[in-house]
Design a protein that fits this description.
alpha/beta; Rossmann fold
């Protein structure tokens, strides 16, 4: 079964696209445990909580379940670690340990004039991620077109 992760910079339309996809497929949405979000705010140690969330995701029985996630914790942390500290968190060291092998990614790009710094970081990360996992790179386009392309892409793994 498959973990379908939607990624991209802020304002790229990830949540809007997920909302449309959920209307058309019977796959649960991973809701980030509030404790993880709250502890991130209090302690600021994002890396530790990313790994906590990843360990929860590994508890899913992937032989029986599909799951949609709005922002994969490891991929997002790689981007935001670089933004916060200026030092990248090397995704290649972590990718095989913390991403289920049956994962696919939908990389939503924002409009050309929005979040270009984040977009550049995501582009760099997904250049590496797609060496190991299927990635759909969605340029900014009308929601109906993005929905259609995404359904076609994820449909290959939902059979």
């Amino acid at each position: 079964m498959v973990l379908i992760a939607f990624e991209g910079p802020q304002k790229a339309g990830k949540t809007t696209l997920i909302t449309e996809i959920l209307k058309k497929v019977d796959i649960p949405l991973w809701v980030r445990p509030w404790q993880i979000e709250r502890h991130k705010e209090i302690f600021g140690n994002y890396r530790m909580f990313v790994l906590d969330e990843m360990s929860l995701l590994w508890c899913v029985d992937w032989s029986k379940n599909h799951l949609i996630i709005d922002r994969h914790p490891l991929i997002s942390e790689c981007v935001y670690c670089k933004i916060r500290t200026g030092v990248p968190w090397d995704v290649e060291k972590e990718i095989h340990l913390h991403i289920p092998p049956s994962s696919v990614f939908v990389y939503c790009k924002p409009p050309e004039d929005v979040n270009q710094d984040q977009r550049k970081l995501y582009d760099e990360i997904f250049d590496r991620v797609e060496q190991w996992f299927p990635v759909l790179r969605l340029d900014w386009m009308p929601l109906e077109e993005r929905t259609k392309l995404t359904l076609k892409f994820i449909g290959r793994w939902l059979r």
